[in-house]
Amino acid sequence: MYKCGRNGNFPLCVYFNSNLKGAKVGIFGKVHNYDYSPHCSSQGCLPFTYSEGSGSAGYGQKVKNNAASVYNYNDTSTRVFYNSGWTGPADEWDPYGWGTYFGNLSATYNDNASQARVCGEC
After folding, report:
1. pLDDT score of 1 more than 70
2. What pTM value is reported for the model?
C-alpha cells in the first residue's frame, strides 16, 4: 500500500466515505481482488485495509465492498470494478489533472472488489 498523493507511486486513493472523507489508502496498479494485498508476510496475504487517517471513519476496515470515493493520482485512467477479476459494472477515473479524476463512486459504491489501470502496456 502506498501513501495517497503525488509521491512517486501515483496511486488510486480510495476513501471510506463519500466526498473524499474518512480513512483512505493508496492502491497502485492492477489488483485482482481487494481481499488479497500483494504485500505478503509470515501471516499470509492480508486484505487491503484503510491505513491512513487514524481515528477517521473506516480506519482499519477492509476496502473490499467498503469504498465510497476515490482520487486518481495516476497518470493513466483507472477503473474500479464491482467484481473481483476486473468484471461487472465499473467506475472509470481519468488521469490526474484531466477530466474527472476524483469523486464519488457510482456503479461500485460500497460494492467494489478490484481495480485496473486503463493503458496498453502497464
Report:
1. no
2. 0.89
